[in-house]
Amino acid sequence: MNSGQNKSFFGRIDWITIGLWFALCIIGLFNIHAAVYDAENPGLFNLATNYGKQSIYIFTALIIGICILIIDSRFFMSSAPVIYFIVVLLLIAVLIVGRNVAGNQAWIPLGSFRLQPSEFGKLATCLTLAYYLSNQTNKNPNMKTLFIGACIVLFPVGLVMLQPDTGSALAFFSLVFVFYREGYLSTGFLIIGGLAIFLFVLALLINQWVIIGVIALLCGFLAFMMRKKRKNVINMLILFVVSSVYVLCVDFAYEDILQPHQRNRIDIILGKMDDPKGQGYNLNQSKIAIGSGQLFGKGYLQGTQTKYNFVPEQSTDFIFCTVGEEWGFVGSVFLISIYLALLLRIVNIAERQRTAFARIYAYGVASILFFHFFINIGMTIGIVPVIGIPLPFISYGGSSLWSFTILLFILLRFDSSRKGTVGI
Amino acid sequence: MNNSFFNRKYVIQGIFIAIALVIIARLFYLQIIDDRYLLSANNNVMRKVIVYPARGVILDRNGQVLVQNEPVYDIMVTPREVKDIDTLLLCDLLGIDSTDFKTRMQKARAHSPYRASQFMKQVSSTTFAKFQEHLYKFRGFYYQNRTVRSYPDSIAAQFLGYIQEVNERDIKKSDGFYRPGDYIGASGVERAYEDLLRGKRGVKNQMVDALNRPKGSFMEGKYDTVAVTGDGLVSSLDKDLQILAERLMKNKLGSVVAIEPSTGEILSFVSSPSYNPNLMVGRELGNNYMKLLHDESKPMFIRPIQASYPPGSVFKVVAALTGQQAGVINEQTVFYCPGGYRYGGGRAIMRCTHVDGATSLVKSIKMSCNTYYGYVYAKMIDSRGLSGPKAYDLWKEALGKFGLGHRLGIDLPGEKPGLVPTSDFYTKRYGNGSWRSSYNISLSIGQGELGITPLQMANIMAIVANRGFYYRPHLIKGIGEKRIVKEEFTEKIFAGVDAKYYEPVIEGMSQAVNQGGTGAASRITGIEMCGKTGTVQNPHGENHAVFFAFAPRHNPKIAIAVFVENAGYGGTWAAPIASMMVEKYLKDTISLPKYIQDRVYNANLLPKPKKPKTPEVKKDSTQTKNKTTAPLKSAALAPKEERSVLVHHSQVRRNHE
């Protein structure tokens, strides 16, 4: 891992990441083409179509990326609070002057282009969190730092929730990985947190008594296996009681505290309500499209489900359907592998940074990309609730592509300017 | 720098990998293990579009069209696509007003805003031609070709039948072949030859998008099947002869059946009153059908095969032939006619129309002598050394060979068997089995319980013309391209009387027409026609006129039976009609004086309209529908039927069967 100072500027750039980034953009472009393709009017390459526009977005994203690589990395480090402040202003502005699209007041119209501040909110939050955590004089993690760090994250979350754009807001919570890596949260917390989220969703989907029954069986089994230590048995009992009460609380909150229309909303998001023309329909059609791809897929531009518009939002949130249908299992695994490679690469890059700022920021990038990757693909195949967030670099849309690109390239900029070897 | 938590890198990377594996596992399940989704995808995108074949065309024996298919157009509309159209122009072109337009659009929208639905059904090609010129101006409007039956000459309605949309029962019975909206032959040839006429449906696999809009064919039509047009049929009917017959029978109740004796092909098949078959097509079918069904003169009733009457004097021909074959008379047999036949020990008399004196077999036919046939029947029943019922059974058997008392097997649905009662029927009626000819002597001259359909009458003539045999009368002489004839229609059927016995009868029939006999009114110069009149006693009104004949005497080409209800003497009405038909067919002219022709054309022999008798109509419809009505029930209803003009004979008789 010896990247010398004597290397040239280009030599210090992580070309593997750029390669993966570019591959994802191109895969996205092709699949957007397939998603909007009209067999009756194939037409020539046309800038007015979605894939025409996307190719411009990719090109501009590349230019933005180059610009970022040229800018001094210290600029991003020092100006993080300013960026955060600007983005917060934009998030407030969008609530006032924003345009309402599909129930979400998330867009600021700028001429023919629409800016989505929440996309840049993630970037600003990552930078600011890195700025704040890396500037702590107290080297050991403490509750005060954790609290302020959490506030840095939760403030934009609150603003995004007001739009209300639940999907984007949830993405901020992925930054929990950053706190974990930096030692502010324990592994146990991660497990309990994961379990809590899992149980929350489960409690809404399945009858609470069934869940409690399953928990009882599991805890009973574990307690039996570890019965030699009395402490374990007691722990299991506590776990059972706490999780049961939690499940009941979720159900109570859902049934008695939420208003009916809010309940409906959650039901639809979870695909629990039979709503053939709404979210349930989307999910079903999405599964049909992906499932019908089989091993090798139907071939480029041959997907009937996507071509004939059975899947809604197919060039944005449901772009993975096109991949699944036309490229099959093989193509899907290929795409997932590229993502995984990118994520693992980013973690490796994070760990080779000499500054805490760069490392914390890198983990922020990895967390946010991971969240989008998991939730987006997960919802198209029905393992997580339908939450409308884009698949980074692949989904159609300028705001999303640019903000993710900026997010990634700032990291590459930090990486290229790191000096000496990786600190321990 | 805080790097003491370096190891947590592996936890995080582990989570990433684990989640990726979960996603891959789920994809493996969706895409490889569970193939339900592939099916759903095909269901989503594929619509099987049925391509309807054209129904077979029916031609007459000379290749002239009787039924053809006429293109009509369904105007379709997809409401969502309709934008900025000139409603006024559209209404004008289609002949509707703006409120009508609105209701039609509303109906279409209620069906679906995205899918094409019928805006207007079965628009004629003339209306459509105008509409099509402007079609490009009406966004969202389309058309769909269909065909409907069309009858260029509006003839032979009961023979051709009609088609209608299938009902639940048809669908169930067809084992899923028919679907709602399909058409099926409901009567006549359309029904009898449904399997051949309907053709084979094709299937086009059409791809559609999420809004059900067509998007080209599936796999370039690899799995499509082509629609096959139904087989064409060649009818035995002679169109010109049919037109003439229908004209002659206008405003009369009755039947005309003409058969080519050498083949059994039916040349003319008239049931009067008829109706215009074009009424049973298109949008007005339902209304017209109900009107016809409730018409008191019963145009839906197929008289030639469904009405059965006592044959009257024409039956003497059969009596003369079966008598000779049985050996009870021969060519030389003479009976003396004092103006009637006395029976029952001289207490009763069956009157003759005139005093014929010494009457030979030939003369008995020529003059239609009742006395003579009284003796013949008496000999048949009383002088064969058998008991009355036994002798009667032999007589009945002989009649059966002449096609009486059972269905002939014409290729038309709804044929009735007519009636020759069993000996048991008379035994029951008279209380014991010792009855003799005098008990039912009226049978000897074709009266009493006998019931014969006009088709059976014409068939008797065909037997006489052939001197002893017949082919099953049929209406379709060729099927499909190869003009295949059904096997059952090529079978020569022996009528049970040897050829030598026919000559005296034919001589008598010839004299009846050509030498001042009862059928003199039908004489045609240059053609030796042999005929026999009949006047059927009708206790409910004017007698029925019957005439049957064949011509020419040697090498006969046509056998014909004419039955005119309530027309009086057979010689007056039925004979001229038969004469004109025969001459038209053989010489393609009519030499009868114009005034006689006009008299026939213009005669109105319809019964005076009676007070509407609704129960009767009701009964008749149940009768035709439900053939298995218990005899008891129909017997109970019989007295009421006495008043009916048309079907009383067959109705009364049905309970004896």
Automatic annotation (TrEMBL), chain A:
One of its GO terms (cellular component) is cell division site. GO terms for molecular function: glycosyltransferase activity; lipid-linked peptidoglycan transporter activity. GO terms for biological process: cell division; cell wall organization; peptidoglycan biosynthetic process; regulation of cell shape. It is a multi-pass membrane protein. Keywords: Cell membrane, Cell shape, Cell wall biogenesis/degradation, Glycosyltransferase, Membrane, Peptidoglycan synthesis, Transferase, Transmembrane, Transmembrane helix. Coiled coil: none annotated. It is found in: Membrane. PANTHER family: CELL CYCLE PROTEIN (PTHR30474), PEPTIDOGLYCAN GLYCOSYLTRANSFERASE MRDB (PTHR30474:SF1). NCBIfam families: RodA_shape (NF037961), rodA_shape (TIGR02210). This is Cell wall polymerase. The lineage of its organism: Bacteria, Pseudomonadati, Bacteroidota, Sphingobacteriia, Sphingobacteriales. The gene is rodA.
From TrEMBL, chain B:
One of its GO terms (cellular component) is plasma membrane. Residues 52-214 form the Penicillin-binding protein dimerisation domain. It is a single-pass membrane protein. It is an enzyme of class 3 (hydrolase). The keyword Transit peptide does not apply. Keywords: Carboxypeptidase, Cell inner membrane, Cell membrane, Cell shape, Cell wall biogenesis/degradation, Hydrolase, Membrane, Peptidoglycan synthesis, Protease, Transmembrane, Transmembrane helix. It is found in: Cell membrane; Membrane. InterPro entries: Beta-lactam/transpept (IPR050515), Beta-lactam/transpept-like (IPR012338), PBP_dimer (IPR005311), PBP_dimer_sf (IPR036138), PCN-bd_Tpept (IPR001460), Penicillin-binding_protein_2 (IPR017790). Residues 254-579 form the Penicillin-binding protein transpeptidase domain. The chain crosses the membrane at residues 12-32. Pfam families: PBP_dimer (PF03717), Transpeptidase (PF00905). Residues 605-657 are annotated as: Disordered. It comes from the Bacteria. Residues 613-622 have a biased composition (Basic and acidic residues). Its EC number is 3.4.16.4. One of its GO terms (molecular function) is peptidoglycan L,D-transpeptidase activity. One of its GO terms (biological process) is regulation of cell shape. This is Penicillin-binding protein 2. It comes from Sphingobacterium humi.
